[in-house]
Amino acid sequence: MAELHVLRDGYVREGDELRVGSTVGFVRDGEALIVIDPGMVTGPDAILDPLAALGVAAADITDVVVSHHHPDHTLNVAWFLNARVHDFQAIYVRDVWIERAAEGFHVSPGVRLIETPGHTPQDITTLVTTDGGVVGFTHLWWAAGGPVEDPYTHDAGVLHANRARVLGLASEIVPGHGPRFVPDANTPR
User: Fold this and answer.
1) Of 17, 115, 123, 179, which is the most buried if we count CB atoms within 10 A?
2) DSSP characters for the chain?
3) Would you call 94 exposed, middle or buried from its count of C-beta atoms within 10 A (0-12, 13-18, 19+)?
4) Backbone phi and psi for residue 155, each to the nearest 5 degrees, phi listed first
5) pTM for the full model?
6) Is the pLDDT of residue 15 over 90?
7) Cα–Cα–Cα angle for 40, 132, 39, rounded to 5 degrees
8) For residues 132 and 125, what is the distance between their CA atoms, to the nearest angstrom?
């Protein structure tokens, strides 16, 4: 089973200036060392220090998954020079572009991608099989409370349908900008 760590809980804070940080994940699944959504954070130490505490250097990362192409989720992909990068349509290795659909693609035996448009038309969810169940890294929710209606969605019906899909597959959610949570009756559908 895969070992999962949240390196950094994301956030969205409005005030005198908008501050946005992505939730950043790390999965160890056999030989695969996977970082999910290494986007905007306060500095390199916010991602690299928690990795180091797990005995992992940036150069050791084998794969990076980006849930979608907004800068707050992609900005720091370049820190992981040896990694294959996965998105909704391809795998990128240095200057090689390998087209493939994300739906059902296994990054490793316990890590699978599914296509879940909602926040953007190109969103994917990373499903991680752990000893505790399946955990979904997704931007279908910003945080446990939603928002109920994503103000950036291209299609609210698609967003809600994909939330239902993910809730049928995952027992825990790691949202785009907040701490992981176990869905309950109050989770926006």
Assistant:
1) 123
2) --EEEEEE--EEE-SSS-EEE--EEEEEETTEEEEE-----SSTHHHHHHHHHTT--GGG--EEE-SSS-HHHHTTGGG-TT-EEE-SSEEEETTEEEE---TT-EEETTEEEEE--SSSTT-EEEEEEETTEEEEEESS-SBTTB-SS-TT-S-HHHHHHHHHHHHHH-SEEEETTS--B---TTS--
3) exposed
4) -160, 105
5) 0.96
6) no
7) 5
8) 18
pLDDT on residue 111: 98
Instruction: Identify the CA nearest to 141 among candidates 162, 171, 112, 113.
Output: 162
Tell me the C-alpha distance between 82 and 60, whole Å: 7
Which residue type, as a one-letter code, is found at position 187?
Answer: T
Average pLDDT over residues 146-158: 94
Tell me which residue of 138, 132, 93, 92 sits closest to 114, measured CA to CA.
Answer: 138
Give the pLDDT band (50/70/90) at residue 46: very high
- Smallest Cα–Cα separation from 67: which of 20, 9, 115? 115
In the beta sheet, which residues pair with residue 11?
21
Count the alpha carbons within 13 Å of 43 in the hemisphere toward its beta carbon.
Answer: 2
